[in-house]
C-alpha cells in the first residue's frame, strides 16, 4: 500500500472529480440496494399477499424498519390503485424501473468523473517521468537500458492506471453497495444474514491465497518487456551495422529468446489472474446454494420468513456477488500495480547527484575566463584525470590533443556539468560552476560534438533549438556563418524540410554544419567543440572548418581535436596523456620542442 499512497499524491489536483465520484457512488450503492428491496411489494401483489394499507405508518425505530418500509409502500399502492391490483402492480413496477434507472445514472456519473481523475493522474505521472528522465545526469543512462526506461513510461504507467487507479472506482462504490445491501438483508432476516457471514471469511481466504504470488509474476513480465524493447531500440539504432555484418539472425535469436520468456511469464501471470473470476463466482454460487437450502427451510418448514422477502433476499445476496468479485479482482490489481509502481517510482525517486545548491547564482555574463583547478575525475575505478589544471582566458582558443582515452572529451563533460568532478574545482569568472544554476551555466556554453545529434523535425526547428522565438533572419544568418545556407536552399522545402530520424536524410558534413548553425544561433560566450570535424571527408571538413573558424572568431573556445591540422591557429595547444598535461604552448612552440606534439603531427602527416 506504500506505493499506492505515493501514486495517489498525483491525484491531488483532480480531487474535485474524486469527491464527485464518491458522492455519486454513495447514491449508486444506496439505490442498488433499494432497487432489490422494492421487489417485495411487487411480489406481494403478485402472490396476492398485499393487504390494503389505509393509514400512513409511523416510524418507531430501526428494529421495525422492514415493516415500516412495507407498510409505507403498501399505503401508497393502496392510495394510487384504489383496490385495483393491476394498477398497484403497474405502480410498483414503475417504482422499480425508476430505482434501477437512477442506480445506473448515478453509476454512469460516478464513472464519468473518475475518468478525468484517472487520465489526469496518468498524464501527470508521464510528465513527471519525462521531466525526471531529462533531469537525471548522462551517467544514469550509461547503466540503464533505454528500452527499459521506455517500458516504464509506457506500459508500467498504463498498468498503474489499469490496476491502482481502477481501485478508485471500487474503493467507495463496492464496499458501500455491500454495506447497504447487508443492512437491508439484516432488516429482512438477521438469522439468514448471520449465516451468510460464516462463508465470507472462507471465500476471502481462498481468493487471497490465489493472489499472493502475483506481484513477483508481474515484476517478471514488466522487466522482460523492458528487455525486448531495449533490443528493438538497439536494432533500430544499429540497423546498418546489423545488415552489413549479416547479423539479422543473431539479433532475431536474442529478441525471440526474450519474447519467449515474456510469453512464459505472461501465461503464468494471466492464468493465475484468470483463476480469480471463476473461483470467486463458484464460491458466490456456493453461498447462494446454501442460502437457498437454509432460507427455503425457514420459508417452507419453520415459516419464520415470507416467500416475497426470501426472493428479495436472494436478489440482495446476488447483488453482493458482483462487488465482492470486483474487490477480489482489485486486490490482484494492487499486487500487479505494486510491481509497476515500484519500477515507475524507482525513476521518480532517484536522487540527481548533479544537484543545485540553494540560492544558486543565475549568471548571465562572462568576463575573465574559465579555470580548472586541480581536478580529478573517474567514471568507475580508475582516474581519467588526475590533478588537472587548465586556464582558458576570455577570447582565447585552447585546443586539447592526445590519443583516445587521454581524457579530452571528459573535460567537455565536466565543464558543461554533465558529470561532477571528484576533486578540485571548475570556475567561471572566479565562481565555482557548482554555485551556478545548471541552466545559466549551459546558457553560457555552446556544444558541437563529433556525432551531430539532430532531431526528426524541420531544418528551422533544429537550428532554432537553442534560441526560442528566433526570427527567420536570425536562422538564415546562422546558417550562412555555418556554410549551410546553400545546401538548405536546395532542399525540397528549404528551411521547412523535415530531415528525418537523426537527420538521416542529410550527409555527414551537412548534419555537422546544421549542428554548428545551431550553436552559432545560440551565440554563447564559451564554445566547446568535441572532435567536430573528425568524421568528415576532406571537402566537408574544409567547409565545416571554415564555419568553425568564423564561429570562434573573438570567442572563448575549448577545441578537442583529432585532426591536428584544424587547431594550428589556437592560442594554446594542450597535449594530454593518461589524464595529465605533458606539453602546452602554441603550435610553433610545441613543434620547436620536438616532443609528443611534434610526434603526433608527423604521424598524421605520414598517414
Summarize the model shown.
Helices cover 63% and strands 10% of the residues. With 607 residues, the chain is an alpha/beta fold.
What Rg is obtained from the alpha carbons, in whole angstroms? Answer: 37 Å
CATH superfamily of the domain at 2-23 and 104-348: ABC transporter type 1, transmembrane domain
Low-confidence stretches: none
Question: What's the CATH first level of the domain at 2-23 and 104-348?
Answer: Mainly Alpha
End-to-end Cα distance: 66 Å
Helix content: 55-70%
Strand order of the largest sheet: 6-7-8-3-9-10
Structure classification: alpha/beta
Strand content: 5-15%
The overall pLDDT, averaged over residues, is: 78
Number of helical regions:
23
- What is the CATH topology assignment of the domain at 2-23 and 104-348? ABC transporter transmembrane region fold
The number of distinct β-strands equals 10
Give the overall shape: elongated
Largest sheet: 6 strands, mixed
List keywords for this structure.
single chain; 607 residues; alpha/beta; ABC transporter transmembrane region fold; Rossmann fold; six-stranded mixed beta sheet; 23 helices; 10 strands; elongated; ABC transporter ATP-binding protein; ABC1_TM_dom; ATP hydrolysis activity; ABC1_TM_sf; ABC-type oligopeptide transporter activity
Topology record:
Elements: H1 2-8, H2 15-37, H3 39-46, H4 65-81, H5 85-135, H6 138-141, H7 146-162, H8 164-188, H9 190-211, H10 214-237, H11 239-244, H12 248-274, H13 276-302, H14 307-348, E1 369-378, E2 383-393, E3 397-402, H15 408-415, E4 423-428, E5 431-432, H16 438-443, E6 445-449, H17 459-463, H18 472-481, H19 485-489, H20 508-522, E7 526-530, H21 538-552, E8 556-560, E9 572-577, E10 580-585, H22 587-593, H23 596-606
Parallel strand pairs: 3-8, 3-9, 6-7, 7-8
Antiparallel strand pairs: 1-2, 1-4, 4-5, 9-10
